[in-house]
Design a protein that fits this description.
CATH superfamily: Class I glutamine amidotransferase (GATase) domain
Number of strands: 11
Strand order of the largest sheet: 5-2-1-6-7-11-10
Low-confidence stretches: none
Number of helices: 6
Distance between the termini: 12 Å
Structural class: alpha/beta
Mean pLDDT: 97
Largest sheet: 7 strands, mixed
CATH class: Alpha Beta
Number of domains: 1
Shape: globular
CATH architecture: 3-Layer(aba) Sandwich
Length: about 190
């Protein structure tokens, strides 16, 4: 039976962190669906690190036209894994109660969950960080993880049980490699 993966996103999602797992997981043979607050074309952003800037810069990215469902339509029990891209999207999509229901299902049921960049903000927002949990994220999210009891590790990918976290788009290959390993072990 074909494995099914859900990606959750919204406007201002980091383009590479959405497109890369979308195509990579399809290449792996998985059925991939994307859910967002509304079924629409998403406006992605491109984050870059430029000389002279102390943080990343943000520019408009490609449009993403393959949103399959609204959060309220998702039945998480129908999926084998969850991917949470970063960018600014997690800051606002965490306000949707249906997303909390979705993320909690995956984390609490032990299904593979991959979160990158600002994606782990969903773990802190929904009180899913367990004391001593190991995780990484974009550096600016590290204090949030630590404040909720996580052990923050500054490395390209961290696997802790069913959670696979990564810092940002330069870590995409390691992030997807480890997520696919978990998916294949299910």
């Amino acid at each position: 039976m074909t494995k099914r993966v859900l990606i959750v996103a919204g406007d201002a999602v980091e383009a590479q962190e959405l497109f890369y797992p979308y195509w990579r997981l399809k290449e792996q043979g998985y059925e991939v669906h994307v859910a967002a607050p509304t079924k629409k074309t998403l406006m992605t952003v491109v984050h870059d690190f430029e000389p002279g800037w102390e943080t990343y810069t943000e520019k408009p990215g490609y449009r993403f036209s393959w949103v399959d469902k609204e959060f309220k339509e998702v039945r998480p029990e129908e999926y084998d894994g969850l991917v949470i891209p970063g960018g600014r999207a997690p800051e606002y999509i965490r306000l949707y109660p249906d997303l909390e229901r979705i993320v909690k299902h995956f984390v609490e049921s032990g299904k593979p969950v991959a979160a990158i960049c600002h994606g782990p903000l969903l773990f802190t927002a929904y009180k899913l960080v367990k004391p001593g949990m190991k995780a990484t994220s974009y550096a600016a999210v590290g204090p949030d993880l630590k404040a909720h009891g996580a052990e923050y590790l500054d490395q390209e990918v961290v696997v802790d049980g069913n959670l696979v976290t990564a810092r940002a788009w330069p870590d995409l290959p390691a992030w997807m490699r480890e997520f696919i390993k978990l998916m294949e072990s299910e």
